[in-house]
Specification:
The structure holds 2 protein chains of 2 kinds. Chain A is an alpha/beta fold. Chain A has 2 domains: 8-112 and 207-229, Peroxisomal Thiolase, Chain A, domain 1, CATH 3.40.47; 135-205 and 232-379, Peroxisomal Thiolase, Chain A, domain 1, CATH 3.40.47. Chain A is built from 12 helices and 11 strands. In chain A, strands 3-2-4-7-1-8-11-10-9 form a 9-stranded mixed β-sheet, with helices on both faces. A two-stranded antiparallel sheet of chain A has the order 5-6. In chain A, helix 2 (61-67) links the parallel strand 2 and strand 3. In chain A, helix 5 packs across helix 9 (280-290). Helix content of chain B is 6%, strand content 34%. Chain B has 1 helix and 7 strands; from the N terminus they run H-E-E-E-E-E-E-E. In chain B, the strands form 2 sheets. In chain B, strands 5-4-3-6-7 form a 5-stranded antiparallel β-sheet. Chain B has a two-stranded antiparallel sheet with strand order 1-2. Classes of the chains: A alpha/beta, B mainly beta. The interface between A and B is large, with 43 and 51 residues.
Chain lengths: 383, 142
């Protein structure tokens, strides 16, 4: 059974601030929840389904109490930065199964100024064999970038083109953390973090979050705001499976074709794509794995202007995780929110894709050793 | 056993993974091997994800491998925060596993994908040693 048309997104809210020293994490969740519900024209009393990562407090229970919700359905799936994209798919499935009718999804995060310490190795089976060697997020993606360069001839300047495109969009976003235009030269001359990734190849670190409201079609019909249809959703966990895992492809090789099939669309139907951009290399590999270009050609593809409004596939028009927002090291929810803006025709001035009918939001949660890949296909009401 | 210029944080050792770490402590690379399906398991654990068997035997490996990818990290975290830089790498063991590790005793600028490596062992706490790798000199090296 396809998820197509079984649920609609009727509310979306991105916290406008990127630095929230005085907020508690639960306050951020609450502000985002009320923002998305106001956008939808619904009351918090209407909510009967709640979705969060369960990272705060006791699973999804603590926030349910804090927010005063009495849901008939709760999901606290945590698959890294992809979690929130998966929550939209899970909410649509729960609504289709009659478990709830008005689902609230929230994210709240506070990580600015926090020095990342040693990871606790006792509670995650693979950590003892990796963290002792100084594994970092940037280091893991640098290993992917180095191997991609080795196999396909990708260059640091091609990686940089992803950041240049993001900055060109971010200048139009009044809330973006980084709004300054950058050049290829700016990126490759920024400090090296993990060779070949420079500082400007890495996403921003922000506080904040957002919220989404997903409802049954009959609820969406009665609301004033324009809604966005959930058309397709698919997930894939890519791991070594006991055999060497390649570091040059993502789980999008599996989740993207399945999500497109679920939606009944082809790649050419996609007008806008929110592509997870923890690092510049993440975007290049994901675009290849969707099939927007041939495997290994992603570097040349982005360097040729593919990501711009008049390019082959406009990507991350809010400035993405590289410039706008990547709350709590998890950028999935922001990816969905920008896709919703595009489909409602509410993107920032000079960044609206013309006649945007179908959009995707894609998340890559975790690292390259193992990752949760989630693809969501959304459509305008007439899609 | 050589002295490590890098931090040597003690790994978390459980009864399930103790054979791997005590092997390293004794200067041996020991890998779990599934008796049921003849598969070399990575990361170390007492269960075979390939066939679902618990019949795991710990075998000494060659300690030889090939460099799959590497990066010089300039922003360490946790115990590596004070390091100016270090090399994080993925090494394909001759037995088939691809492992995350460090390359030591080598100029990062001279490293190349495909290079042959051998394991070295750095004591880390009472019950374990870290398994790092170093280039095997080739005949062209002087």
């Amino acid at each position: 059974m396809s998820i197509r048309g079984q649920a609609h997104i009727v509310g979306a809210f991105e916290h406008p601030l990127r630095d929230l020293p005085q907020h508690s994490v639960q306050q951020i969740h609450a502000e985002c929840a009320m923002g998305a519900l106001a956008d939808a024209g619904l009351s918090i009393r209407d909510v009967d389904g709640y979705f969060s990562t369960g990272q705060l407090g006791f699973g999804g229970v603590s926030l349910t109490e804090y927010l005063g919700l009495r849901p008939s359905y709760v999901d606290a799936t945590f698959v890294g930065g992809s979690s929130y994209i998966s929550h939209v798919g899970h909410a649509a499935a729960a609504i289709a199964a009659g478990k709830c009718k008005i689902a609230l999804l929230t994210q709240g995060a506070k990580v600015r100024g926090v020095i990342r310490g040693a990871k606790h190795t006792a509670d995650t089976p693979e950590f003892p064999f990796e963290t002792v060697y100084g594994e970092t997020n940037a280091g893991i993606y640098a290993l992917a970038a180095r191997r991609h360069m080795h196999e396909y001839g990708t260059t640091p300047a091609q990686l940089a083109a992803v950041k240049v495109a993001a900055a060109a969009y971010a200048q139009h976003n009044p809330h973006a953390l980084l709004r300054k235009l950058v050049t290829i030269e700016d990126v490759v001359s920024s400090p090296m973090i993990a060779d070949p990734l420079h500082r400007l190849d890495c996403c921003v670190v922000t506080d904040g979050g957002g919220a989404i409201v997903v409802v049954a079609p009959e609820i969406a019909r009665d609301l004033k705001r324009r809604s966005v249809k959930v058309l397709g959703h698919a997930e894939a966990i890519k791991h070594s499976g006991g055999r060497p895992n390649d570091f040059t492809s993502t789980g999008a090789t599996q989740s993207a074709p399945r999500a497109l099939a679920d939606a009944g669309i082809s790649l050419a139907d996609i007008d806008y794509a929110s592509i997870y951009d923890s690092f510049t290399i993440t975007v290049i590999m994901t675009l290849e794995d969707f099939g927007f270009c041939k495997k290994g050609q992603g570097g040349a593809f982005v360097a040729d202007g593919a990501l711009a409004l008049d390019g082959a596939i406009p990507v991350n028009t809010d400035g993405g995780g590289l410039c706008n927002n990547h709350p709590g090291y998890q950028g999935g929810l922001v990816k969905v929110i920008e896709a919703v803006r595009q489909l409602r025709g509410e993107a920032n001035a000079n960044t609206q894709v013309r006649d945007c009918r179908i959009a995707v939001a894609h998340g890559t949660g975790g690292g390259m050793s193992r990752q949760a890949s989630v693809t969501l296909v959304l459509g305008r009401e007439d899609a | 056993m050589s002295n490590s210029p890098l931090p040597t944080p003690a790994p978390f050792v459980s009864p399930e993974t103790e054979p791997y770490w005590s092997g390293a402590k004794a200067g041996k690379l020991v890998l779990p091997h599934c008796r049921a399906c003849d598969h070399t398991i990575w990361y170390p654990k007492a269960f075979c994800g390939e066939c679902g068997a618990f019949d795991v035997e710990w075998r000494e490996a060659s300690g030889l491998g090939t460099l799959y990818s590497f990066t010089q990290v300039f922003r360490g975290e946790g115990p590596y925060r004070e390091c100016a830089s270090f090399v994080l790498a993925l090494v394909d063991l001759d037995e088939g596993a691809r492992v995350l590790t460090n390359i030591v005793d080598a100029d990062p600028a001279g490293l190349a994908v495909g290079q042959r490596l051998r394991a070295v062992f750095h004591d880390a706490g009472e019950a374990a040693a870290l398994v790092r790798f170093t280039p095997i000199p080739t005949s062209s090296d002087t």
